[in-house]
Design brief:
It is built from 16 helices and 13 strands. The chain is an alpha/beta fold. It folds into two domains: 195 residues, Glycogen Phosphorylase B (Rossmann fold); 139 residues, Rossmann fold (3-Layer(aba) Sandwich). The protein has a seven-stranded parallel beta sheet, with helices on both faces. The termini are close together. The mean pLDDT is 92.
């Protein structure tokens, strides 16, 4: 059986790596890895392949950036001849980026089966491009691998045949479990002031709905500045966010508000593991902090990962900056034992990829 994997952005890499490894244990499965080039610079792509010990892509489409329509169309146009030439029996797509839905649409037109890893997640906010990608990909997929029970319920509600749905757990947690010890050994002490090793907040923001709102972004930076009076704030800045900070002419006045370049996976995971709290708008980080027991404040009005709230450490604070500051101060008042409560999400155990490989092997 020939399985072709399509990845395009960093969250895809973390999800695909354990599946590639698990399928390699099945001798009758041949694998091809296609990178669309949606994330294309070394900091956003190459170093992740190295740290995750992923094989070099068999094909890089090199689509680069663009609007959602431009990027999706470019991926479809470039991927179609690759699909025809490689002729896989199954294409695996991951998550909710443009590469995911673009590949699924090409496959559906050519009658090639699609498996969607991380199916069924819903924010119920169709203003989010990722929500549209999730909805369309799930409707086009033949195998739907869900990370949690809410994913199953969403798919059944949308009329997906129950026989197509396979709850396997969270493959991102597979990667975290496998590499956490390596990450601890690469803790980036040189990026922190001497007083930050025991208490710091980690920040990551990239969603256009947040960072493209410049007046709101300026106010958020003021909140982070006030928070830095109580502990160091470490902020690896996404390229899109960096452009917006430059538009604002922002210069951090507090030496304890540290703006960093984007970090490789292991270094970021190490920072996340030891953080007093994480402030984010990332879906994947909501999951990782839940597993790690690190308090997480999500700067969004909704989440497609509600299990991180019901079973984990995640709180939605929306775009209410007073609420963000109040929630952060409450976390700081707790002791470390109270702040770090482990997660008990079923099947988030480091073996999701093995379950995916077993389903694929049975369906071969």
């Amino acid at each position: 059986m020939h399985v072709l994997h399509v990845v395009g952005a960093r969250p895809n890499f973390m999800k695909a790596a354990p599946v590639l490894r698990a399928l390699a244990q099945h001798p009758h499965v041949r694998q091809t890895l296609v990178h669309t080039g949606q994330h294309y610079d070394a900091a956003m792509s190459d170093v992740f392949f190295q740290q995750l010990e992923m094989p070099a892509p068999d094909c890089n489409l090199g689509v680069g950036s663009g609007s959602h329509a431009q990027q999706t169309a470019a991926i479809m146009t470039a991927f179609e001849p690759v699909l025809l030439d490689r002729a896989p029996e199954l294409v695996l797509v991951y998550g909710d980026v443009n590469s995911t839905v673009a590949a699924a649409m090409v496959c559906s037109k050519l009658n090639v089966r699609v498996g969607h890893v991380e199916a069924g997640l819903r924010s119920r906010d169709r203003r989010m491009p990722e929500e549209i990608n999730r909805l369309l990909t799930d409707q086009l997929s033949d195998l739907l691998f869900t990370p949690s029970s809410d994913g199953d319920e969403n798919l059944l509600r949308e009329g997906i045949d129950a026989a197509k749905i396979h709850r396997v757990g969270n493959v991102m947690i597979d990667t975290l479990v496998r590499l956490l010890a390596h990450a601890e050994a690469r803790f980036p002490n040189d990026l922190l002031p001497n007083d930050a090793s025991s208490s710091y907040a980690l920040v990551t923001l990239h969603r256009p709905s947040n960072v493209d709102d410049l007046p709101w972004l300026r106010e958020l930076l003021e909140v982070l500045g006030r928070l830095s009076a109580q502990l160091t704030v470490v902020f690896p800045v996404h390229p899109r966010t960096r452009q917006r900070l430059e538009s604002l002419g922002f210069i951090a006045e507090s030496p304890r508000l540290r703006l960093l370049e984007p970090l490789p996976y292991l270094e970021f995971l190490a920072l996340q593991r030891r953080a007093a709290m994480v402030i984010t708008d990332s879906g994947g980080i909501q999951e990782e902090t839940t597993f790690l027991g690190v308090p997480c404040l999500t700067v969004r009005e909704n989440t497609e990962r509600p299990i991180t709230i019901t079973h984990g450490t995640n709180q939605l604070v929306g775009r209410d900056l007073n609420r963000l500051q109040t929630a952060a101060e409450k976390i700081l008042k707790r002791n470390s034992e109270e702040s770090r409560q482990g997660c008990a999400v079923p099947l988030w155990d480091g073996h999701a990829a093995e379950r995916i490989a077993d389903v694929i092997a049975r369906k071969a």
